[in-house]
Amino acid sequence: MKRRVRRAGRRLYERLLEREVEGVPTHIAVIQDGNRRYAKGRDSGTRAGYKAGARTTESMLSWCSELGIEEVTLYAFSTENFDRPPEQQEQLFDLIEQKLYEFADDEEVHDEQVHIRAIGQLDLLPERVIEAIDYAESRTEQYDEQYLNVALAYGGRAELLDAAREVCEEVEAGTQDPEAVDIDCIEDRLTERPARDVDLIIRTGGDERTSNFLPWHANGNEAAVFFCAPYWPEFSRVDLLRAIRTYQSRQASWRRTRTDRALALLQAVGADRAVVSRLTEKVGEIPEADLDDIEPTAD
Predict the structure, then answer these.
(1) What is the pLDDT of residue 251?
(2) Do 274 and 174 reside in the same domain of the chain?
(3) In the prediction, which pLDDT does 252 show?
(4) Residue 37, annotated ligand binder?
(5) What is the rounded average pLDDT of the residues 145-158?
(6) Is residue 155 marked as binding?
(7) 259 near 286, Cβ under 8 Å?
(8) Which is nearest to 25 in space by CA: 245, 200, 149, 215?
(9) What is the pLDDT of residue 290?
(10) Do 82 and 202 belong together in one domain?
């Protein structure tokens, strides 16, 4: 009885969250943490935890598709994961290989026109995983409706370091003008970069850190970050909706900040109320009390 009541309460809460969702992020990046701890808490082997996490990944992608999220990047295997025991690495590689083939042949992937691609230092991976990557990418390369990026052998600092080294080598060779090095110059040298900046990072498992994940695309965009306690296999649609609510709150905060800065500038130059009215249409509502604080333009 209690279990049914809890399920009903959770379904009600999910519906309430759905009503609060007015705009979704374009690009979500996910740190899927807690698979091994989930398995340990159930006296299961590590492989069972990874498989449970893989099922959550499939559900997560379906939820994102339903909500209209256009790009998802999954942190599947970091460069730090190479420090794990060989048997754990092999278990992860087995699962990654299997899921890449499954996703590449999945009817829903093709119906939704999802473009699958891997990012990271892929040459460090076993040949069998590289072959699975090539298969998934070739099967979906013609699509551009949605993107699924799988970060494998990925480290954000290494990615930036490689880009910096390439620029330095070109400057030394005389093929790159140092004065011409700009944001686009760096982005062009990042490994198979995601199509869009990251709007929201989600991390499960309780740790509150982003673990060197997409520093250029997320931190540079000042992405919203949502940390939650459930291990990745326990992550639910409710958790995703709560994360999106965090993103929306972040967006609202930025709008208020932009409005406050605009008001301060108008006060400094002595703008009249007509100018403020036009600004209101661009950046959102400005309280009437704030309008009264603005002095008329002195002629």
Answers:
(1) 67
(2) no
(3) 67
(4) yes
(5) 91
(6) no
(7) yes
(8) 200
(9) 43
(10) yes
